[in-house]
Structure formats: C-alpha cells, structure tokens
Amino acid sequence: MLIGDVARRSGVSARMLRHYESLGLVRPTGRTDSGYREYSGEDIRRIFHIESLRSLGLSLRDVGRALDDPGFAPAELVDGLIRQTRDRIAAETELLTRLRRIGAAEPAGWADVLQIVTLLQALGSKSAGARQRAALSAVEDVPVPVEALVEAVLSEPDPHVAGALRWALAQTGEDGPALLAEGLGSPAAEVRKRAVRSIAEIPNAAATALLRDALAHPDIVVRGYAALALGARGVADAVPTLIDMIVEERNDADAADALSTLASDPALADQIATGLVDRLARGTLGAPARRRLAQALADIPGLTTSRALADLSLDEDRAVALTAAYVLTLRDARQ
C-alpha cells in the first residue's frame, strides 16, 4: 500500500508518516519499481499501535521504547502519566473555576477583569494582611463572586481575616448560605466550624433555616454555634441545645446570655424556665452543673424560676445553695 493510501486509511498524514520513518518508528517494508514507499499489513498495524500509545500521552521516544525494547516495563511510565494527567486536570479545573468566577462578576470591560483577577489572587495570598484587604475590597471596590468568598472563608486559618471574610459574605445577599451549607458536611471539623460561624453572621431567612437544621448536626460545636445564633434571633428551637450547653459547660456563659435574650419574650420565658427546671429535676447532675443552672435562672422571669431557685437554696452543696440564695436576693431587689 502506498503512502497516500495509508494516510487516508489510518488518519495519519503523509508528512507525519515520513516523520515516523525519520525517527525509526516505522519503515515501509519495500519500494515500488518507481521508488515509492510501500507499506505492508504489518507496517500498518505498527502505525495503529503508535497512534494508540500516543493517545495515552506517551512521547514518540517512549512509543519507540514500548514497541522495540523487549525489557520495557510500562508500569512506571504509566504511573508517571497518571500523575501528569492529574496535575493537568487540577490546573485546568482551577483555571475553569477562575474563569467562571470572573464571568459571574459580569465585568463591563478588561479593566474590571484585571481588577477581579487581582482580587482573586489576593484572596489566595500567603500574606494574611493581603487576604484581609482583599476581603474588605470584595464589598467596597470590586464585586467578587460569592463562590470565591465561600471558598476563602472555609479555608481561612487567621481569625482576623476570617472575620473580614464573614463580614463580606454577610453583605452578598441570598447565595451565601446555600454554598456554606456544603461546608457543614465537611469531614474536617475546622471547616464545619467556619461554615456555621459564617452562616450565623448572615441575617436572612435562608441562613436561619440552615441554623435550625444545624441544631440536629452530629458535631456539638456546630450545634452550639447554631443555638447561640438562633437565640440571638429569638428562635425558641434553640432552647434545649442552649440548656445542654450550660449543663455540659460548653460556652455556658454565652448560652445563658442567649436564654436571657429569649426570655425577654414573655411567651418564651415560661418555656425556658420549665426546661431548666426539668434538667434540675432529673437528679443526675453534679454540683457544678446545678450551680451553672442556678446562675442561668437569674434572668428568667416567672414563678417557676422563683420556686426552682428556692429549692436550690436548700441544695446539699453549699456553693449551689449560696448561688441560688444570692440570685433570689437579686430578683427580690429588682421586684
């Protein structure tokens, strides 16, 4: 078969076939009387083998080794190709993500594109100061896609930068909570914590709904931040978790403050008092937990609270009894 026919049937150009020949990859078996290259069936099979190996990403040099070296072991070469391909995919994915974010910002011109690219680079800077300035600029100067802010806040270790990023996210509108919700399912505890803290600072209905769901989260840290945020928003669903936090001494002072805020609503005050009294009535709490509950009762109005404090003032533990008696005295003075 002549070179033109081989090129048509194999899809390999005549020029490339001559290049293969110059490299010694495939040599036509014979020549016609007129001196034209003539390829045998075996030659054509070798051409297809060359193209198959090239499709895997092998260089022509490696293709020659694979076909001609009897001792050639492909495992190491294939492992290297896998690593290169993964690196290339990661780089292309990062580029695609950056392009999508630039497109989402709807730049009006190339000046806007350059500003957005600069800001995205600053968000990924090794300098905490640069990242913090970028977070503030994301709202004040250059509109940055919410996805970029969410990715930044979920990976940010510096507390000051994280605070700036949370503030920036809180200004972005409705899209932030849904994206942050994915962080709540992260296997990394720090990412889950960053996600719930960010959601807690977004003052909209979508964030509140996520915080309600987070009260049932298996991570106690997530549950705690959700309960504190919901308490500040006046959501009664947070009461049981806040009481648990006081009993378990997890941010108990903040939890007591949240209960006090909720109790300013007369409709919730009795529910909170009943919840605290029910925990005391179980009879399995140690003295430190009873003392913390007595302190939490201080700002909860109503007869239920007063009766509970009167009972606690007779507690067998002197510290608990004194705390309850002192709280009762303060309540009487206010009334």
Automatic annotation (TrEMBL):
Superkingdom field? Bacteria
Q: Name the UniProt key words of this record, in alphabetical order.
A: DNA-binding
Is Magnesium among this UniProt entry's keywords?
no
Start and end residues of each HTH merR-type domain:
1-69
Q: Which residues cross the membrane?
A: none
PANTHER family of this UniProt entry?
Answer: HTH MERR-TYPE DOMAIN-CONTAINING PROTEIN, REDOX-CYCLING DRUG-SENSING TRANSCRIPTIONAL ACTIVATOR SOXR
| Name of the protein this chain belongs to | MerR family DNA-binding transcriptional regulator
Species annotation: Streptomyces kasugaensis
